[in-house]
Amino acid sequence: MGQLQTEVDPAEVGFDAERLQRIDRHFEHYVADGRLPGWLVLVARHGKIAHLSTCGMRDAQAGLPVETDTLFRIYSMTKPITSVAAMMLYERGLFELTDPVSRFIPEFTEQRVYINGAPQQPRTRPATEPLRIWHLLTHTAGLTYGFHRTHPVDQMYRDQDFEWGHPAGLDLSGACAAWAELPLLFDPGTAWNYSVATDVLGRVIEVASGLDLDEFFRTNILEPLDMRDTAFSVEERDRDRLAALYTADRAGRAVRNDKFGRAAHHPPRVLSGGGGLVSSARDYHRFTQMLLRGGQLDGERLLSNRTVDYMTRNHLPGGTDLETLAMGSFSEAANAGKGFGLGFSVDEDPAAAKVLSSKGEFGWGGAASTAFWVAPREELTVLFLTQLLPSSTHPIRSQLHQLVYQALVD
Q1: Of 64, 72, 122, 208, whose CA is between 20 and 30 Å from 396?
Q2: Whole-angstrom Cα distance, residue 64 to residue 71?
Q3: DSSP for 36-95, written as a single string
Q4: Does an H or E element contain 300, and which?
Q5: Is 355 helix (H, G, I), strand (E, B) or coil?
Q6: Do residues 48 and 380 make contact, with C-beta atoms less than 8 angstroms apart?
Q7: Could you tell me which residues are beta bridge partners of residue 36?
Q8: d(CA 291, CA 381)
Q9: Which residues does 326 contact at the CB level (< 8 Å), separation at least 6?
Q10: Among the listed residues 336, 387, 282, the one whose alpha carbon sits nearest the alpha carbon of residue 42
Q11: Alpha-carbon distance 322 to 335, whole Å?
Q12: Which helix or strand (DSSP H or E) is residue 321 part of?
């Protein structure tokens, strides 16, 4: 895989070419009416890119278009990469999924759970279960994000400057120590809440491997997969390729947000395994192809195919779905019929979700409205990249599903 380009006639891999054009025509309206600044979509089947298109601007103010080598902040699409990194260490026998997190981060030794009360004076009790590594991988840890704004503990995170960033002066170790001092929303393993769990997992990776997270990524994932554009910041020579970041106004139109956007210009103090990476379509496509091919790509094996299969099955307690177990919603995506594996959502029942998809499909998205999925039964991978915060502004992901799957006709 060299330069990113279409690699196969759509008909050869089961697509109707005219139906694929419906994807472009639909999302072109998002750019025309100002809902998105620009976007890139990539659809591949049987390992070959069947549809690749771009629309709009990576920087509307500068008049620079989205191009196939544009760099995007992938935010929570960092989480699957961190989860793969963790499972690489698991395969080396460096931990068990049931190990307490306190084995690697002692501050998590005695967790307490919120009962009631104001954020300034909460009532808590001891957790009935230690926080374990599998809880981090599945977001059943009881941790949270400050930006949720649905629970008193969310406010406690915000009060310590954990919302869309981190307090000045903290590194990843310090951030984990601060989170460990805050109460959990629930006993680990009893509910699901999207959270800083994958950031904590990143610290586990550092302690277990003896490497900083960026160095572990570079030597164990990015270089082996030739993901040359993926990093925690963008070097000055590549900043013209980086898309500007936008935030939706009250009418849902994209407004430039340089305050958040400039964070990618400099290496962060906190290496966020939960949301810190910048990447390109080419790089993330290579990552999805590694997953589709059972943990290996171009002769480089990161994981056993058994491990990938294990990661992409539903690990929620009792085999339930996110609709049942999740505390509230966090994006525009439907929770019904979706389980959660070790780092990925897993589509268990497409009929329940009321979104056209394939059973066993797994994937995730990012805060700036990015998304990807891998559908093993169809040998299909899909990638959508744009830069609009938050991802819940428009139903991009459900619409992308229906438009991609309606084009499959074999």
Answers
A1: 64
A2: 13
A3: -SEEEEEEEETTEEEEEEEEEEEETTTTEEP-TT-EEE-GGGHHHHHHHHHHHHHHTTS-
A4: strand 300-301
A5: coil
A6: no
A7: none
A8: 10
A9: 191, 192, 193, 194, 335
A10: 282
A11: 5
A12: none
Q: Give all domains of the chain, ordered by start, each with its CATH number.
A: 10-84+228-405 (3.40.710.10), 95-209 (no CATH)
Q: Provide the token pair at 29.
A: 């309206």
Nearest CA among 222, 319, 307, 282 for reference residue 3: 282
Does residue 241 contact residue 71 with C-beta atoms inside 8 Å?
yes
Mean pLDDT by 10 residues, the chain (410 residues): 86 98 98 97 98 98 97 98 98 98 97 96 97 98 94 96 90 98 97 97 98 98 98 97 96 93 96 98 98 98 98 95 81 79 96 94 97 98 97 92 98
Q: How far apart are CA 137 and CA 344, in angstroms?
A: 9
Tell me how far the alpha carbon of residue 351 is from its chain's centroid: 24
The Cβ of residue 62 has, within 10 Å, a number of other Cβ atoms equal to: 9
Please state, in angstroms and rounded to a whole number, the distance separating the CA atoms of residues 126 and 383. Answer: 42
Identify the bridge partners of residue 380 per DSSP, sorted by sequence position. 45, 375
The dihedral over CA atoms of 321, 325, 330, 334, expressed in degrees to the nearest 10, equals: 30
Sign (positive or negative) of CA dihedral 188, 194, 197, 198:
positive
Rounded Cα–Cα distance for residues 15 and 50 (Å): 8
Tokens linked to 20 = 């694929």
Residue found under tokens 């899909």: 382
Question: Which DSSP state fits 388?
Answer: E
Place of tokens 């005219």: 18
Global pTM exceeds 0.85: yes
The position carrying tokens 């001891």 is: 126
